[in-house]
């Protein structure tokens, strides 16, 4: 974890927190930013070898003792009132408990300079929108009641990528995912991915969630979900110059759900025009 990430947690206006840092097999132990901190609220968990994001989050959840749990990925950071604002929102449910909440975020790529604001725009239910991908950035915006996380079960550690998407698909079947339309995280992508890991994760995600998606959303929902998984893989294939795989995934997505593909590319064009 970078020092900026650690600082953004330690400086929260809501101070009654425990800070659990999971060093997932880092080769640079000092990168967690602890050397500058004597904050007694900090607990460090070290994995001797890298086990993946799912394992790191699961380790943090198992160590947590508070009523709520929030996540922050290593390259990201929070504004100083993130926890305060999100707790206030989750405790103002007007008679209904909010189990899980995500927020908007500011997204940029490391070394690319200019970023963009990402607000949550939902058409329909979150479970339906999750058929199109993991748009909620749970890595750094999500806050949930710890009791709910234990009832939901851990993130799937067999997934080295797309683990947050699989986890939220499960969550959306048992609770409504609340969306706080404020920018409460700064998310930086370092693009440390490889094509094989994404392709394998896509295959595993379809196997793990395909039947449940079909039962909840029917055949069209399943085809929409399958097309979205293939489009996720196609983006990675394009990034790494895997032309044959790019054609394969786009073709398969077109067979599954042509309208999903048209919407995907239409959104990509709009993003380029607005950037």
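-> sequence recovered:
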């Amino acid at each position: 974890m970078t020092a900026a990430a650690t600082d953004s947690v330690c400086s929260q206006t809501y101070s009654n927190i425990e800070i659990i840092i999971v060093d997932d097999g880092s080769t640079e132990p000092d990168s967690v930013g602890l050397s500058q901190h004597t904050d007694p609220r900090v607990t460090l968990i070290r994995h001797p070898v890298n086990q993946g994001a799912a394992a790191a989050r699961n380790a943090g959840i198992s160590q947590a003792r508070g009523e709520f749990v929030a996540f922050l990925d290593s390259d990201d950071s929070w504004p100083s009132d993130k926890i305060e604002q999100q707790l206030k929102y989750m405790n103002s449910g007007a008679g209904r408990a909010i189990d899980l909440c995500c927020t908007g975020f500011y997204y940029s790529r490391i070394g690319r300079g200019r970023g963009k604001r990402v607000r949550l725009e939902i058409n329909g239910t979150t479970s339906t929108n999750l058929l199109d991908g993991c748009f909620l950035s749970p890595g750094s915006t999500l806050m949930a009641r710890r009791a709910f996380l234990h009832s939901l079960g851990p993130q799937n550690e067999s997934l080295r990528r797309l683990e947050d998407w699989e986890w939220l698909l499960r969550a959306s079947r048992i609770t409504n995912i609340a969306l706080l339309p404020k920018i409460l995280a700064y998310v930086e992508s370092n693009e440390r991915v490889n094509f094989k890991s994404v392709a394998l994760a896509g295959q595993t995600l379809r196997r793990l969630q395909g039947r449940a998606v079909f039962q909840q959303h029917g055949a069209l929902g399943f085809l929409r979900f399958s097309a979205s998984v293939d489009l996720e893989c196609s983006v990675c294939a394009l990034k790494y110059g895997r032309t044959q795989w790019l054609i394969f995934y786009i073709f398969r997505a077109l067979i599954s759900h042509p309208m999903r593909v048209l919407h995907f590319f239409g959104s990509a064009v709009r993003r380029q025009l607005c950037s």
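The mean pLDDT is 85.
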